[in-house]
């Protein structure tokens, strides 16, 4: 049976041009009526597509029309139907973030890659870190810290010298960004079920922003983060090129 495909593209000219070509060749369905969504762009656009379509429970197949394309497959418009029929599905759960700002307003967001706390002024941030209600670090002086999923462990987490996590592992990476005290503290591996809380110390003098997959909130007082198993993102990859293989390959390049 021919799949009903919804083609979505980033604003980049090459992505829009590719979408026009694919729509002419394969037709186009509305996302709510589609059997599969094809996202054309880079990793940032893939993340936005997953966020925007998570209520549909439709798998997303990305083709790289951006730069790195870690979450994307190679672009090729000649045999798309065959590739879709052979694609392998990975299911990932996002992080759920609750963040209270200094005015008392509560913000909530989901993050497929990571939730980051970043200093928003000239001075280093001071953070207290608790895990499952127990204080684990009374004070971390740093440029920031982040909690990453396995899917996001090769993104900002890896740039901050955090570990790459196997996609099937029930583990989250807590990684410091330019830690000053404790000196060279890099972070910790936590179970996926962990509830992590960051309290911002001296927030008036040392402001901190929270970021969930590029959705940012300024002047944060505290942040709580946990994995959200009720939300399932379904991503399709060409055989032999899924997230597990990519995560392993990244460690040998």
Can you summarize this structure?
The chain contains five helices and 17 strands. The protein is of the alpha+beta class and 253 residues long.
The CATH H-level superfamily of the largest domain is Probable inorganic polyphosphate/atp-NAD kinase, domain 2
The stretches of 5 or more residues where confidence is low (pLDDT under 50) are none
Q: Hey, roughly how much beta strand do the residues contain?
A: 35-45%
Question: Largest sheet, order of strands side by side?
Answer: 6-5-16-13-8-9
Query: How many discrete domains?
Result: 2
Distance, first to last CA: 40 Å
Please describe what this structure looks like.
This protein is an alpha+beta fold and 253 residues long. The chain folds into two domains: 107 residues, Rossmann fold; 133 residues, Probable inorganic polyphosphate/atp-NAD kinase, domain 2 (Tumour Suppressor Smad4), CATH 2.60.200. Helix content is 17%, strand content 40%. The protein is built from five helices and 17 strands. The strands form three sheets. Strands 6-5-16-13-8-9 form a six-stranded antiparallel sheet, with no helix packed on it. β14 and β15 form a beta hairpin. The radius of gyration is 19 Å and the shape is elongated. The model has no long low-confidence stretch (mean pLDDT 93).
Write the layout of secondary structure elements.
Elements: E1 5-9, H1 13-26, E2 36-41, H2 43-53, E3 60-64, H3 80-86, E4 88-92, E5 95-101, E6 106-111, E7 114-119, E8 125-131, E9 134-142, E10 144-148, H4 156-159, E11 171-177, E12 187-191, E13 196-201, E14 208-212, E15 215-217, E16 220-227, E17 233-237, H5 243-250
Parallel strand pairs: 1-2, 2-3, 3-17
Antiparallel strand pairs: 4-17, 5-6, 5-16, 7-10, 7-14, 8-9, 8-13, 10-11, 11-12, 13-16, 14-15
